[in-house]
Structures are given as C-alpha cells and as structure tokens.
Amino acid sequence: MASETENIKYEESFIKNTRGMKLFTCKWVPANQEPKALVFICHGYAMECSITMNSTARRLVKAGFAVYGIDYEGHGKSDGLSAYVPNFDHLVDDVSTHYTSICGNVDFFVGVKV
C-alpha cells in the first residue's frame, strides 16, 4: 500500500524474519526532495508503528527526514502472539537486520539520489 499527501510518500510492506515470521514495515519519505537523513523508529511494548508513530513520523518528514518503522513479532500487523516477545534477542536481531538492509539497499531510498 502506498499513498502520498502533503508531499509525504507513505508505504507499507511485509518482510520475513529468519524464523519465517511475517513482519510489518512502513516508511514515510519526502515526496519531492532528497531526505537530510534516515530515521529508524522503534515503538514501545504492545504498540505498533503505523498508527501510534504516524504523527511523529510526519513531523520528521516535514523537517526533511525519511522515517522507517517495523512492527515487532507479536505487535501491530506482524505475525506472533499478541504483545508476546518470547526472546528479546530475536526482536533486536529483526530490527537490526531490517534497518541494516535499508542502509545497504539503494532500492529502499525512494526519490533519493545516492
């Protein structure tokens, strides 16, 4: 799903972690300019990124940043038992792997000249 309003491009997608679970991801990027930097957000326990972090992400994009979010296992639209994190190391690995892949993959930089 992708949408564009107020010069903000918003997209949602899913990735699979190393345990085969589907994890929800989203991003807010400036629609008509190169971002100043990337911001990776991590939500709190029993929360999710696309709704609860939306206003913060939009403010950051209006200030010129690209913002990326991920729902942890058992949170938001991701697979897993609701609000249950069986192994915190897995959560950290999922987040680290996803955000590292964004930094190393030019395809994630929508509208960015690198």
Automatic annotation (TrEMBL):
Chain ranges of the Serine aminopeptidase S33 domain: 33-103
Instruction: Note the InterPro entries from the entry.
Output: AB_hydrolase_fold (IPR029058), Hydrolase_4 (IPR022742), MAG_DAG_Lipase (IPR051044)
Gene3D superfamilies given for it? Answer: alpha/beta hydrolase
Q: What are the GO MF terms of this UniProt record? A: hydrolase activity
**Keywords, ordered alphabetically:** Hydrolase
Specify one Pfam family. Answer: Hydrolase_4
**Superkingdom:** Eukaryota
PANTHER family found in the cross-reference section:
PHOSPHOLIPASE-RELATED (PTHR11614)
Provide the protein name: Hydrolase, alpha/beta fold family protein
- Organism in which the protein naturally occurs: Arabidopsis lyrata subsp. lyrata
Question: What phylogenetic lineage does the species belong to?
Answer: Eukaryota, Viridiplantae, Streptophyta, Embryophyta, Tracheophyta
